[in-house]
Amino acid sequence: MYTTLIQVSADDKHRTTVDPTSPWVGIDHVQLAMPAGQEDVARRFYEGILGLPETPKPPHLAARGGCWFESDVVKIHLGVEADFRPARKAHPALLVRDLPALVAALRDAGARLVDDEPLEGYDRVYVDDPFGDRIELMEAERQRGRPEITASGAARDRSRHPSGPGH
Known about the structure:
By secondary structure, the protein is α+β, with helices and mostly antiparallel strands.
């Protein structure tokens, strides 16, 4: 038997009611690929810069390599891929708080940041993890007059850049 679920985004304005007859209730984790032997590099980025704590992998999976980073609401699992190629288009989109501070920390760490077309209701930027996998970082707009934050950390006047098609 299913019960009615209410999903609320970080900004509380994208509230949706989930169909109680649907078997879908959410996403447990996102898996990204990484090259073998680069777990320390992953830790410096995901835990050190993004602030996602590492969670030990179950012993039977740890032998495969890779690492897991999990908070109460975000779970990113990195798995080793023998013929690794970074995901340049497919990506997770993570909702964050204080995007300008995160952009500054990423910029200070030398991460590659990329802007895209504005998306109504959000400030957003793309970052490449150390392996070239694309990650979108999004923060809900708190007030309409607030300038949009770009990858360079600069503010962009929203009134001159109407929302575009996004991805």
